[in-house]
């Protein structure tokens, strides 16, 4: 099944990797460089799920999740946090901000696809 | 570089390019911090740079890089959180660590041996900075972080190794309010659960109030699932990992254990039979809608309320157009641009050919062909400018490399040195930047090693203990000027002279001006260091620097003031490819002069020329006098003419302020010429910068006016060619 995904990450490499992981699975992938850009991109699309990095310039992942959840349309859109940090505090913070789940970098493409299907399939 | 067909290799290659950018940002950030910036965003930038490098490195399994970047990041995180204030010692370590990250990145990229010793040493120093507590946290975190797990939770389907033993589980699941706030959806969880095996899902609706009592966004129901599966309990729990703590979850039963009947299952709840969907594509089968089937509609309504999912029905919707891309950047192999530049060069030559043959055909300047040619010329120029812009790059990366050289060389000679940079945004052709790296490195080392005094000497001279090296880049009249200035003691001219005498480079009784003495430094084999230090003595002298600058079509000069410091000034062409030239005739030869140095053309009257002394003339231009040189004589094409009256003169002005008048026989044209370098197989003739191919296929030499004037011995400096000749005679 084809899902539309918005992936927000300030690292070009990571964006490339996400795209490469998701495109073969038939996903439609939209990319953004940071939280603010993510919100801008979100205006034109209606993703089934969102993936976001935490450490980003201008608006970080927490701020981005907050902003997404503030939009009535996206109160329940699944948001996965993609992060190298796996500390329980970080997960707590992500969850408090409204993240649906988290994926620890480096990620395995097949597992990323599965995780997305699990929350948005 | 990368296998074009392998997307992974491509991403890997682009990762290393990104690393370069991140390293640049890292250096900038550290520099700002070092300069006393208190902006938290600066620390953030530094943190993120290291963090992103680590993230990418992890994706490509570059473990050494990940390990080091992680520790570095941890320290930066401490700084970011305000737990640590970096003092100057810490800043030094941060810089070293940044240098090391850059080494690691390069080693990984080139698959070269990793500098493990340095890694160890720096890791130890970072640990020291973190203190004990930091390390403890660190160990824990790294153990957690860096197993190449991929995802933190296992989404694997029943594992064959675990044995295909079927077990029966009873799962009790009651979502809490917060579950919905995080975008989790019980339906998805149940679906994933069903995918594990044969499941019977029962919805417990006993807590469900009447419609009137319904509070939206409140949870009233729980589910009881009987699951027959080959999966083990952890797998079942993994499904609920994201909602751990956001729901009540009980998993009982297992492969061996008796299957507890769901005691909590109220009889009035109709059981829902669900077949396990295809485990690989759980979505292919019509998803079981336990709630929908099991509950009154209002329940579904209620559940959907808070968890209203925008995807519903969205799959059939046509996909919307891609979001506007951020400013898109194409990364291109330099070779391809190189080819384009060459082609443009050919185009310029071709256009010159065409223009020449149309000229010879004697067409009217108003003919269509001539108009078309004009348009063609304009387009050629535009294309050429655009191509050059592709290759233009700010000198920033080069300057950053130099800051590292300063750090390393100052540490080696135990001096404290600050590097100031100006004009980092100045753009220069990429090739020029690359080829400048070695000469600049050498000159920076020189400044640190020879230019600056020791801290004690500086203190004695009433200067701050830390020396300053200033690196400046600027555009000036179509060229790039790069200056390396130190605030050291200046050139010790007596010593330079003595050394030169000792080495037999000049006669002991030679009378040399200050400039001439300074220029002795550029002589092959000259070194003022009485002892070969670890920095100098790499077999490279200033003569090599000079040669490499000249091979770039550049010039180098020195100015020095005793006690104040020394400045090396490099002047370079903006590009190595095309030049706006003035094509002139001298003694039957065709020559090209860079157009940007030509101020005006004059026709000489007999009264305009004054003789200073035999063989040395000046010409009166607008009330001033400018030295007059006959190009034909200087280049050895002809001997001195009796009178210069009536001759055509080009007044040239150089970026160093020198002016001169050059006698020529005629002006042919003003046009773009393609610079063809004269490689090493030719003797480097003073005054000749390069060659070009004209429209008729003829080869013409491109002159370097500054070099020509210097070669003649201009009273205002740049006497190197003269002294060289003098020395050769002696």
UniProtKB/TrEMBL annotation, chain A:
- Kindly indicate whether the keyword Phosphoprotein belongs to this entry: yes
The protein's matches in Pfam families, at most eight in alphabetical order, are given as: Response_reg (PF00072)
- Signal sequence span is none
The record's section on SUPFAM superfamilies has:
CheY-like (SSF52172)
**BP-aspect Gene Ontology terms:** phosphorelay signal transduction system
- What InterPro entries does this protein map onto? Bact_response_regulator, CheY-like_superfamily, Sig_transdc_resp-reg_receiver
- UniProt keyword Phosphoprotein, yes or no: yes
Q: Which keywords, in A-to-Z order, does the entry hold?
A: Phosphoprotein
Q: What is this protein called?
A: Chemotaxis protein CheY
| Protein's gene | cheY_2
TrEMBL record, chain B:
A Pfam family recorded for this sequence: H-kinase_dim
Task: Report the transmembrane regions from the record.
Answer: none
What EC number is given for this enzyme? 2.7.13.3
Q: Keyword annotations for this protein?
A: ATP-binding, Chemotaxis, Kinase, Nucleotide-binding, Phosphoprotein, Transferase, Two-component regulatory system
InterPro entries xrefs: Bact_Chemotaxis_CheA, CheA-like_dim, CheA-like_homodim_sf, CheW-like_dom_sf, CheW-lke_dom, HATPase_C_sf, HATPase_dom, His_kinase_dom
Question: Which Gene Ontology terms describe the biological processes this protein takes part in?
Answer: chemotaxis
Highest taxon, organism lineage? Bacteria
Annotated region Disordered: the residues are: 251-327
Query: Which spans does this entry mark as compositional bias, Basic and acidic residues?
Result: 292-320
**Entry-linked Gene3D superfamilies:** Histidine kinase CheA-like, homodimeric domain, Histidine kinase-like ATPase, C-terminal domain, HPT domain, SH3 Domains
GO cellular component terms? cytoplasm
* Protein name in UniProt: Chemotaxis protein CheA
Lineage, uppermost ranks:
Bacteria, Pseudomonadati, Pseudomonadota, Alphaproteobacteria, Rhodobacterales
């Amino acid at each position: 099944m084809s899902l539309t995904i918005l992936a927000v990450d300030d690292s070009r490499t990571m964006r490339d990797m996400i795209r490469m992981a998701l495109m073969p699975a038939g996903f439609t992938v939209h990319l953004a460089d940071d939280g603010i850009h993510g919100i801008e991109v979100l205006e034109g699309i209606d993703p089934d799920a969102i993936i976001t990095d935490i450490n980003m310039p201008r608006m970080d992942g927490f701020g981005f999740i907050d902003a997404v959840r503030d939009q009535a349309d996206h109160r329940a859109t699944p948001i996965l946090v993609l992060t190298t940090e796996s500390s329980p505090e970080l997960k707590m913070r992500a969850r408090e901000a409204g993240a649906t789940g988290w994926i620890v970098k480096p990620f395995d493409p097949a597992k990323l696809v599965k995780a997305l299907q699990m929350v948005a399939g | 570089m990368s296998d074009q067909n392998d997307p992974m290799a491509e991403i890997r290659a682009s990762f290393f390019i990104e690393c370069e950018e991140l390293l640049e940002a890292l250096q900038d950030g550290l520099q700002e911090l070092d300069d006393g910036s208190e902006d938290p965003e600066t620390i953030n930038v530094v943190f993120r740079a290291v963090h992103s490098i680590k993230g990418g490195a992890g994706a490509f399994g570059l473990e050494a890089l990940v390990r080091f970047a992680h520790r570095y990041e941890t320290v930066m995180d401490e700084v970011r959180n305000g737990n640590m204030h970096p003092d100057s010692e810490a800043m030094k370590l941060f810089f070293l660590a940044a240098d090391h990250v850059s080494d690691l990145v390069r080693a990984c990229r080139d698959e070269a041996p990793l500098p493990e010793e340095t890694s160890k040493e720096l890791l130890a120093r970072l640990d020291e900075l973190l203190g004990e507590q930091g390390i403890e946290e660190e160990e824990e975190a790294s153990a957690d972080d860096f197993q190449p797990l991929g995802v933190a939770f296992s989404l694997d389907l029943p594992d064959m190794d675990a044995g295909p033993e079927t077990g029966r589980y009873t799962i009790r699941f009651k979502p809490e309010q917060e579950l919905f706030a995080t975008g989790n959806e019980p339906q998805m969880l149940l679906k994933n659960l069903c995918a594990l095996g044969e499941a019977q899902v029962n919805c417990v609706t006993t807590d469900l109030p009447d419609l009137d009592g319904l509070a939206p966004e409140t949870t009233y129901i729980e589910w009881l699932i009987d699951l027959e599966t080959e999966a083990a309990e952890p797998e079942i729990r993994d499904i609920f990992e994201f909602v751990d703590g956001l729901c009540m979850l009980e998993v009982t039963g297992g492969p061996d254990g008796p299957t507890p009947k769901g005691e909590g299952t109220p009889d009035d709840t109709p059981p829902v039979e669900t077949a396990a969907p295809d485990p690989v594509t759980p979505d292919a089968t019509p998803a079981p809608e336990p709630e929908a089937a099991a509950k009154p509609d209002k329940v579904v309504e209620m559940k959907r309320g808070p968890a209203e999912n925008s995807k519903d029905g969205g799959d059939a919707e046509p996909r919307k157009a891609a979001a506007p891309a951020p400013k898109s950047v194409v990364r291109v192999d330099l070779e391809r641009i190189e080819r384009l530049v060459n082609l443009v060069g050919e185009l310029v030559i071709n256009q010159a050919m065409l223009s020449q043959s149309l000229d010879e055909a004697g067409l009217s300047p108003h003919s269509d062909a001539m108009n078309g040619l004009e348009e063609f010329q304009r387009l050629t120029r535009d294309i050429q400018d655009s191509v050059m812009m592709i290759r233009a790059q700010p000198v920033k990366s080069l300057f950053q490399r130099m800051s590292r050289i300063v750090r390393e060389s100052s540490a080696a000679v135990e001096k404290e040195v600050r590097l100031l940079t100006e004009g980092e945004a100045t753009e220069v052709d990429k090739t020029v930047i690359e080829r400048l790296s070695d000469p600049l490195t050498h000159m920076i080392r020189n400044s640190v090693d020879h230019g600056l005094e020791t801290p004690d000497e500086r203190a004695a001279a009433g200067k701050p203990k830390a020396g300053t090296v200033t690196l400046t880049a600027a555009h000036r009249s179509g060229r790039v000027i790069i200056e390396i200035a130190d605030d050291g003691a200046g050139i010790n001219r007596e010593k330079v002279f003595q050394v030169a005498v000792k080495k037999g480079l000049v006669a002991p009784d030679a009378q040399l001006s200050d400039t001439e003495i300074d220029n002795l430094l550029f002589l092959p084999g000259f070194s003022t260091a009485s002892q070969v230090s670890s920095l100098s003595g790499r077999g490279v002298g200033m003569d090599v620097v000079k040669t490499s600058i000249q091979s770039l079509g550049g010039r180098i000069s020195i100015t020095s003031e005793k006690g104040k410091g020394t400045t090396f000034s490099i002047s370079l062409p903006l590009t190595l490819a095309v030049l706006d030239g003035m094509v002139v005739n001298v003694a039957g030869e065709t020559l090209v002069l860079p157009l940007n140095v030509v101020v005006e053309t004059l026709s000489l009257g007999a009264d305009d020329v004054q003789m200073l002394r035999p063989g040395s003339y000046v010409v009166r231009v607008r009330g001033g006098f400018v030295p007059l040189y006959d190009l034909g004589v200087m280049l050895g094409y002809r001997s001195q003419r009796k009178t210069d009256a009536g001759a055509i003169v080009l007044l040239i002005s150089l970026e160093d302020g020198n002016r001169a008048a050059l006698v020529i026989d005629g002006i042919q044209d003003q046009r773009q010429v393609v610079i063809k370098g004269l490689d090493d197989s030719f003797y480097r003739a003073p005054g000749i910068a390069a060659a070009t191919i004209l429209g008729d296929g003829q080869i013409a030499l491109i002159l370097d006016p500054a070099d020509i004037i210097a070669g003649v011995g201009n009273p205002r400096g740049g006497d190197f060619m003269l002294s060289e000749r003098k020395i050769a005679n002696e």
